[in-house]
Design brief:
The protein is an alpha+beta fold. The protein is built from four helices and five strands. About 10% of the residues have low confidence.
Length: about 160
Amino acid sequence: MDYKVKVRYLRIGRRKVARLLPFVKGEYVNHAISNLATMPQMSSVVLRKAIKSGIANAIFQSRNINPDTLWVKKAIKSGIANAIFQSRNINPDTLWVKTAYVDKAPTLKRIRAASRGSADPILKRLSHITIILSDDKKPEKKKLKAKSAKTEEAPKAAEV
């Protein structure tokens, strides 16, 4: 089953977040979090929080809980979890990042005073991050077959 996490209106540009997504896609969540922990970028902190929130969503959704008897807002610290209730047990070690992408969000437009009474625009870019975690079996990476070691000699230069 897939578990979706969305971080919306993030005050970091789309390109800055997109640089870190290859280190997350297709990895188990524990490995992805440890990869992001060693990176100095601010967007790595946000991605780490989003993945942890996704783990919390998956665990919470897998429990057999009656929504009438539980106040969902206090059930999970992250507060982002969707309240979809199913009767399955989830092991966080089996979760992996199926897809992760970042979309453009509305831009905040500001003005800075410039010379001769004119104004220069300041664009404060926002982004939306979507991460989909899955507990299905992770597909194995295809291994490239080793090519036969044919040693081709380079053509020799004519001796003069």
